[in-house]
Amino acid sequence: MMSRFKVGTVLDRASPFRFPFKVEKGLSLPVHEYVTVEIEGRTVLAEVLDVGARNPLVSESLGGYVEEWGVERFGYEVAVAEVLGYLDKGRIMRPKYAPKPNTPVFRADTDILQTFYRGDKDRIPVHLGTLIHRGDVKVPVHLQDLAFHLGIFAQTRGGKSYLAGALMEGILLNTHFPVVVIDIHGDYVMMDRIKDDEKGGEYQHDDFDVVVYYPPGAPRINGVTAEVRELKISPKQMTNEAVMTLLGHLGELQSIEVRRILSQFREKGRPFGLRDVIGEIERRIEDESLRSDERRRLASILLRLEEVEEEVQLLAEETPIQEFLRPKTLSVICLRGLRSRIQDAYTGIIVDLLFKNQVKNYGDVVKAPPTFLFVEEAHRVASANRSTYASKVISTAIREGAKFGLYMCLISQRPRSIDPDTMANIGNYAVLRITNAQDQNMIENASESFSHRLIEDLPALNQGEAVLVGPFVPLPAIVNVTERRTVHHGTTPDLLSMEMKLREHIERARSERW
After folding, report:
1. Which of 259, 260, 392, 477 has the fewest Cβ atoms surrounding its Cβ within 10 A?
2. Is 178 left (phi over 0), alpha (psi -120 to 50) or beta?
3. How confident is the model at residue 1 (pLDDT cuts 50, 70, 90)?
4. Distance (Å, rounded) from C-alpha 64 to C-alpha 62?
5. Beta strand ranges found along 55-115 (DSSP E)
6. Distance (Å, rounded) from C-alpha 348 to C-alpha 338?
7. Are 415 and 151 contacting, i.e. CB atoms less than 8 angstroms apart?
8. Residue 42: how many CB atoms within 10 A of its CB?
9. 427 φ, ψ to 5°?
10. Residue 415 phi/psi, 5° resolution?
11. Mean pLDDT of 150-156
């Protein structure tokens, strides 16, 4: 039942899309509050976009006499509301008529708001937050509509990985679908743990499985309690372009030589690793009949291969791609501490392997279940300025992947640097605070749903507030992101806490010394 708490009266110059109204005396409304108004017998929901104070009797010439003469009692507020629509058989419809002047405006009650944001069970809703100003109204996002892919954007330290983790939780707690995240900074490696404020600590949960994968030889994060496995990628399962990305820039003749060696190994049909490729080049270098220029070329390739092997190892053994696709499992591909070139290559390899598996086994819910793939540092691995292997693979996967059950989420603090073709295939947006005008323009130009008025709201968002826009939400909404159950490992170091611990360590060392 609609609340009869009146907050204002419609003024003239209303339209079917927005209307001004005079706020009741003594009341103040915040922007993004929700109101209802009757239009042609229907209860229509609207969102307050702007609020301003007016007083026709106040002027600069009055100076300090405003309060003395009591002129302030003639002041009032005028708000402008954008029409969102009315419900008709469960669907949100836009009215064709404007509200008439003097029509009363009411504050939308919780029941009405929750009806608009109730979610469709057939599209698998999970709650990602609550409306700002209305913390009792949960806002769902529909997993079915992540087929349009998702972009999570915010400036540095804006809460991107926290929001992404909240969405991962929602997927894993409400479905049996697998989630894979390419974790550049180690933000998700502690998601096997929950905070228990009552017991005052962190404890492992069994709500879903978490497996952290490290490339062999990659640095590992201390304190990880989740299951840890080696990410075994063989040159045999990599494309030539992926291998070249790992090696870095090679000359044309060097590249031809590497491709020839890889082709020879693949023709044999046996597993092989990077050490096998190195051994083959060493054998050729020892051939006395080899010309000096060919020996120098092979020696240069050998040096590059050995440099790669110092950082990561490409073994003959392979991690089966189905291992990442186990039900109710979060697979964290942790690439923290590796060079950018290595991270880019591994990102491209994982995306490529997942995409090809979905295409090959499409329709087999065990071998190729619907999979949610999150990619950090998207502005780098899907860059508009570099034609990289990872960028090409991501472009293909985000363009074609949804039809094969691969739903992608790109996470970035610089959407302006993401390839425009890739951005064009993102239909859903979860955007936190962004002040850079270029990033704002990129989002507005790429999205059909992200209106200019929502763009204008981005610099004013507080920590933990996000704009949700796209088919995955019933209506565009600004929300307070739901509190995570699992531990977030991407927080900024607490300098005061670390200073106190360091001070205690120094004092203890001094006392032991004396």
Report:
1. 260
2. beta
3. very low
4. 6
5. 76-88, 91-93, 104-107
6. 15
7. yes
8. 15
9. -105, -20
10. -60, -25
11. 92
Give the H or E element holding residue 412: strand 406-412
**Is the CB of residue 60 less than 8 Å from the CB of residue 431?**
no
| Amino acid (one-letter) located at 31 | V
Residue 242 DSSP class:
H
Assign 26 to helix, strand or coil: coil
Contacts of 15 (CB under 8 A, 6+ apart): 98
Q: Could you give the residue ranges of the DSSP H alpha helices within 122-192?
A: 160-174
3-class state of residue 363 by DSSP: coil
For residues 427 and 148, the answer to whether their CB atoms sit within 8 Å is yes
Q: Residue 90: name the closest of 110, 118, 67, 69 by CA.
A: 118
Adjacent-strand bridge partners of 406? 371
Count CB neighbours of 276 within 10 A: 18
Domains of the chain: 6-116 (2.40.10.170), 136-231+319-496 (3.40.50.300), 237-313 (no CATH)
User: Which one, of 337, 425, 312, lies nearest residue 378 by Cα?
Assistant: 425
| Cβ-contact 351, 397 below 8 angstroms | yes
CB 409 within 8 A of CB 374: yes
The per-residue pLDDT for range 63-107, each reduced to its tens digit, is 555 455 544 565 678 999 999 999 998 889 999 999 999 999 999
Half-sphere exposure at residue 421, Cβ-oriented, CA atoms within 13 angstroms? 15
Other beta carbons within 10 angstroms of residue 71's beta carbon come to 16
Q: With bands split at pLDDT 50, 70 and 90, how would you rate the model's confidence at 491? A: low
